[in-house]
Amino acid sequence: MTGKTPHPEAAGPTRRGFGRAAAALLAAPALALPHRGALAQAEPIRLGFNGDLSASPSAQSGRAAVVGIQAAMEDVNKAGGVLGRPLGLTVRDDLSQPPKSIQNMSDLIDNEKVAAVFGPTNSGNALAWKHIPNQKRIPVMGCIGSATDITKPVREGADNYMFRIGSVDRIQVVTLMAYAKKNPRTGKIGFLTETTGYGQGGLKDLQEVAQAQGLTAVASEKFNVGDTDMTSQLAKLRAAGVETALVWAQGTPIGQLMRSMDKIGYFPIVLTSWAADNLSFINAAGPELAEKPIFLRTVSEDRTPHQQAFFDRIRPKLDADSAFSFAVHGYDSTVLLAAAMKQAGKTDGAAIRASLEDLKEKVEGYAKTYDHPFSRAEHEGLTAADQRWTCWRNGKLAAFRDEVVQNLQEGDFKG
Length: 415
Known about the structure:
Blueprint: H1 8-11, H2 15-27, E1 45-51, H3 59-78, E2 87-93, H4 98-111, E3 116-118, H5 123-129, H6 131-136, E4 140-142, E5 162-164, H7 169-182, E6 188-194, H8 197-212, E7 217-223, H9 231-239, E8 242-248, H10 251-264, E9 269-272, H11 279-285, E10 295-297, H12 305-314, H13 324-344, H14 349-356, E11 363-364, E12 369-370, E13 388-393, E14 396-399, H15 403-407
Parallel strand pairs: 1-2, 1-3, 3-4, 4-5, 6-7, 6-8, 8-9
Antiparallel strand pairs: 10-13, 11-12, 13-14
Keywords: Amino-acid transport, Signal, Transport
Organism: Roseomonas gilardii
Protein name: ABC transporter substrate-binding protein
């Protein structure tokens, strides 16, 4: 370990900064309209955002998604809006609390009469209220929370109003496990997961995908989200001969896990969730230890010119470079919703859902160009092929490459 000063991005915003940024988003003009013409006088099509903007380190993801949604609305409105009407956004901060998130969802649908909802920031909140939009037939475009079950229908054959443009735990696990299976240095594998719903949902995916790919974990240990010393769990993995650890947790505990590895001098290959891209991870781990895990994101740090132009446009509004992917998710979710409403010719929730499940025209986003991204059975807009290998280098996110990544084929992604 050396005493390097973290990159400025790694310092992270303060809790007070969270509050100021959230207040700015909530106070921002709801519409981005032309100054003249009939569009400016038309009743807006109201959309809602429901997610954490201020209460946790993950709030930076929520704020970034709102920035992306607002940028997309600005572009859609400049191009004439949807059905002759502008798009408008109503923002609700759920403070990372399921009861508050449930209340917000009911308020947005029943009182604000939104046509669709974006969010939430936290997977557990989506799982707490997904029955509400399904009952009231209001589409939800998830752009942050990644739990696998979010977009599953409430029962087989039922109409499903939960869609997503973003990372999915199961897709990440399938991709990471394919890497482990193909890597000649993998050796014995083990699991380390936090005890939250997020961590245990990830553990279920890890166990099922490992079985599908013919791998067996020789050890599986858990830790609490607030733990700062995981040396006992790591000692058990080391005693079992684990050479590759698959870790599912939020940013801060992954960082504390790296510090615990440093304490006992045990560094297996670490394949982990996309939460490692969060500032909370590098703040907890420090810039040197942060370089050890490998993880996945939906936007590479090798940005295309198209992505770079968008990055330059919105970067002043983001907390950090690492939040850019969430802005991309928010933008792409918005233009897909706009395309579905145009195709449907109305803003009825059932009609929007049906159009999303059978979009006729390609839609250009910043993660990719979408060509029939959804169907009745598939509500995930991004796939294993859309994952981008990532790591930290010199206090900044960087694209990760090695021979294993380069040799992965479509048939490797099982589970």
